[in-house]
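During the reporting period, we have paired protein sequences with backbone structure tokens. One record among many follows, to show the layout:
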Amino acid sequence: MVNENQVPEYHNNNILGVLIGLVIGALAGAITMLLLAPQSGEDTRMQIQEKGIELRDRTNVMMGDAMAQVRLDRNKITMGGRQKAQELLHQGQALVVEQLEHVSEAAQAGKKAIQSS
């Protein structure tokens, strides 16, 4: 009969067996990875470097295109703003002429009123 305060003997052997199994499994996995790797580390580094250069070049082209589009949009906005300013200037000038005509008419009416009295 096993007492409640006693630890079974097979418990320590179980932990040791699991640890040994983990170490053996890790070694087997590492050896398998080295044997079945698709290419050497040098080839992998070279491939990463080439992809990095390709991505950099594509980014530069995309940034150039984006900057050209921004400049084009800026020019369109500037031209639109200038046209709108010209339109507002002409409208303002027309309003000034119209108001001057009203003032002139009022002055003429005032003169007539003064002369007739």
Notes: The radius of gyration is 45 Å. Helices lie at 10-36, 41-116.
